[in-house]
Structure formats: structure tokens, C-alpha cells
Amino acid sequence: MEEVLQFLKKCGTYYLATVDGDQPRVRPFGTANIFEDKLYIQTGKSKDVSKQIQKNPKVEICGFAEGTWVRVAGELVRDDRIEAKTSMLDAHPDLKAMYSAEDDNTEVLYFKNATATFYSFTGAPMTVQF
After folding, report:
1. What confidence tens digit (pLDDT) does each residue in 10-62 have?
2. How many domains, the chain?
3. Distance CA 4, CA 40 (A)
4. Residue 101, domain CATH
């Protein structure tokens, strides 16, 4: 899982895909953090993406850097604990201008039943499950 986090950091921006009814939705994200041996991302509860995840927690993310890309498929689980939110905000201090561990909008979610597959044009795929 650490290799997934480090790769997402290298990407800077990765793309999260959700489902909205029968329509796929994709948007850029940049947050990733490991807390209590789980890979977390962050958003705001007021956003459409949060509502889509709560309706259907199955998502995929995709990031690309230096000729390699990763696809992470799994389910996202909301973690409302202040400790989880604080860990994310400490890992991404620029978020503190918009979010707080104590507010009702900050949402952190961790991957459950996830599979990350690294691909490149030159090598065989590598898979990590967590």
C-alpha cells in the first residue's frame, strides 16, 4: 500500500471515478494518506462526489507519472473520527484553509477490498491488494 501512496504523490493529481445513477463521473483529486494501515482520500460532504460515494461506494482512481499508471479499484468507507481527519489535514496542510477536523463538512474515506494495478508500456502489470 505504501507504494500506491508514493506513486499517487508522484502523480500529484489523480482521477477519481464514481457513478451517478447510470452516468460515470470523473474528477481530479490530490489527497492521499495512510492512517492506521489504510489508504485514505479526502473530500467535502457537501460535494456531489460525496453523495455519489455514499450511494455507491465502489470507485476507481487512476494516476499517471513517468510512463507508468496505477488504477485502484475498491470501496470507500467514511471515517468520521477526528483522528483520521487530523491525520489527513496534517499530511496536506494546504487543506486547512478550507477544512477542519472538527467541522461537519470534512470527509475522509478509506479503501476497503482494494486492488491497485500498476501498468506501463514496457513491463508486465504489478498488482497490490489491500
Report:
1. 999 999 999 999 999 999 999 999 999 999 999 999 999 999 999 999 999 99
2. 1
3. 11
4. 2.30.110.10
pTM: 0.96
What does the block give as the cell for 108? Answer: 475522509
Q: What's at 15, amino acid-wise? A: Y
**Residues forming a β-bridge with 44:** 106
Task: Please give the single-letter amino acid code of residue 55.
Answer: K
Whether 89 is in a domain gets the answer yes
Q: How far apart are CA 62 and CA 43, in angstroms?
A: 17
HSE-CB at 82 with a 13 A cutoff on CA atoms is 4
Is 127 part of any domain? no
Query: Which positions ≥6 away from 117 have C-beta within 8 Å?
Result: 70, 71, 125, 126, 127, 128
Mean of the per-residue pLDDT values of the chain:
97
Q: CB–CB of 89/83 below 8 Å?
A: no
